Every structure is written in C-alpha cells, then in structure tokens.
Model the fold of this input.
Amino acid sequence: MYVPAHFDESRPEALHDLIAKNPLGIFFTHGRSGLDANHIPFELNAKEGTMGVLHSHVARNNPVWQDIANGDEVLIVFRAGDSYISPQWYPSKQEFHKQVPSWNYIVVHVYGRVTIRDDERYVRGMVARLTRTHEASQPVPWKMTDGPKDYIDTMLKAIVGIEIEVTRFVGKSKLSQNKEVRDIQSAGEALNAKGERVIGDAMLACAEAKAAQ
Done:
C-alpha cells in the first residue's frame, strides 16, 4: 500500500483499536488455487508473539484452509470507514479553484504467517472469546451453553481455526492532512452533516491537532 508520510498511521495503540472496533477483516491468501479473499471476523491478541496474533475461523466447507499451508504469508485488511470528499467543501476552492475530488479512509493492513488450527480445543476457546466480546453489549448476552451440547459440538466441528502471527502492520489514515486547517475542518463538518461521522469526526480531530501545531 502506498502511504505518503502525512497519511502514515503507525501508532500501535491506534492500529490495535481500529482492529478491535472493526474486526471483520478481508483475509487475502495466495494458495495452490491462486489468489483468494474471505471476509471473516478476527480477534487480535496484541500480547502474543512479537507483534501480536490474530485468531479466527472459517467454515470447514470453505476450501481456503486446505488451499494454504502452515507458514504461508497472508494479508488481512481492516477498514474503519471511508467517504467521498467534494472539492466544493474546501473554502480554498472558492478562492483559488485549485482543488479536485478525493476519497478519504482509515485502514490497516496486517501481514503475517498463517497456521491452520484444526483442533476442537482451539476452536471452542476462540469462538467463546469472540462470543463474549460481541455479545457484551446485548441486554441478555448469548453464550455457548445456551444451546444443547450436541448441537454446539456439531457446529464447532463444522469450522476450522485460523491463527496468524503478525509480522508487520501498515496503517493509513487519509484525512486531507495535506490541506489547510480550514479545508479539513469544513470537509469534516460537511461529512457530519451527511451523517458520515466516522471520517467526519476523524477529520475534525485532525484539523484540531494540526491547528495546535
């Protein structure tokens, strides 16, 4: 991914937070059958390994887990949000007419080495953790013991664990940082007025930080 210096996001806490809040990653592989991409939820344990370990699972019927081998390099892309940016939102455009359309976004690319974990203990623990995390906001959280044991056991046998030891993070936060503060702020306000608050709020925070420099 091309990352100009002004769009670079390399703070570990920011990258970890993005993954935690946007856990559905695009899992890119290059196996025996060629390139493939799967959309699956991940859990990042930042304290495992040198740079952290991602945990997930795929359906046993999904051929990807047999198409790749332990140790293969894989790429997972996590996206926090994206928005079209109109040049009409920049005050400087009204004065100088030297702005063009753009697209802002916040993403992190995670590179790592994959290990297939086709064992019941790993899968059960991983699913339990994912469930606790994503059911926590429910009034009455669902838990694995809510289902009959034989049913849960059957469901767990239908999935295969995926473990990825992270080797590199590449983060990009494109929020018009190369523009004037007034342009960043105005575009952020325009996005919020349209209800696109992820990028809108991020741009307003970026404008505030740039103004304080």
